[in-house]
Amino acid sequence: MQKGLDTLALLGISGVLLVAFYYQFVIGELPCPLCALQRVGFILAGIALMLNLRVGYSPAHYGIALLSAVAAGAASLRQISLHVIPNTGHYGSALFGFHFYTWAFVGYGALVVYIGAMLLLAREAPERGREAPAGALATIACWLFLGLCLANAVAFFAECGMGPCPDNPTGYLFKL
Amino acid sequence: MVMVLPFVLGFVAALLAFARRRNAAMVVALATVAIQVWWLFYHATDKLAISL
């Protein structure tokens, strides 16, 4: 059951990254530096889940996801706090009434709850490599996530080059 | 500050995880977390434009 839930969670994280790409490339909203840090949080959580799927469950894998969720949650809270005072504007579009940094904060909260539940429900960690191999859906989820990690690295290189991203990005440094 | 660095390291960690190189993936992922926290500290203390 654990691998099934981790697969679904990895697909969920890939879905979040795909939505971010949709708003970046279709709507034309470039990610800001704090947005970038929030994406890194989802990527690190995905890596932890992928480790569970590829080499077997370990609490240490969830530890990485937990650390990154706390750091990325702090980044989203920083961005929320910039706009919480009335008439201080906002960054980007809203989805179902909330901006993406608010949704990101909710997402990291859900991730922390998920990790806590999985650690509670998990049996003793089996010896790695002696578990049943992950199924086809898990393999597809891993490939999709791997592709999204590469796409994020390329997209941020195109936007920021080898330096810091602008506070209010208006275009790409490199275009095809 | 190289903003793309945590994304490149994240991709490398994902690649290592996919290749079942567990220890290497863990080390690179932890390095990515460290850089994420470092960048966060920078962006939590610098003077950002309020439109962010």
Structure description:
- The complex is a heterodimer of chains A (about 180) and B (about 50).
- Helix content of chain A is about 70%, strand content about 0%.
- Chain A has helices at about 1-25, 35-55, 60-85, 100-120, 135-160; strands at about 95, 100.
- Chain A has 5 helices and 2 strands.
- Chain A has a two-stranded antiparallel sheet.
- Chain B is mostly helical and about 50 residues long.
- The radius of gyration of chain B is 14 Å and the shape is elongated.
Judged by helices, strands and strand pairing, the structural class of chain A is mainly alpha
Name the shape of chain A in a single word: globular
Approximate shape of chain B: elongated
Please give the number of β-strands of chain B. 0
> Separation of termini of chain B?
18 Å
Give the secondary structure arrangement, pairings included.
The complex is a heterodimer of chains A (176) and B (52).
Chain A (H helix, E strand, L loop, with lengths): L1 H25 L6 H23 L3 H25 L10 E2 L2 E2 H22 L14 H25 L16
Helix pairs in contact in A: 1-2, 1-5, 2-3, 2-4, 2-5, 3-4
Chain B lengths: L4 H14 L3 H24 L7
Helix pairs in contact in B: 1-2
Task: Offer a few descriptive terms.
heterodimer, A: 176 residues, mainly alpha, two-stranded antiparallel sheet, 5 helices, 2 strands, 68% helix, 2% strand, B: 52 residues, 0% strand
Quick description:
Chain A is an all-alpha fold. In chain A, 68% of the residues lie in helices and 2% in strands.
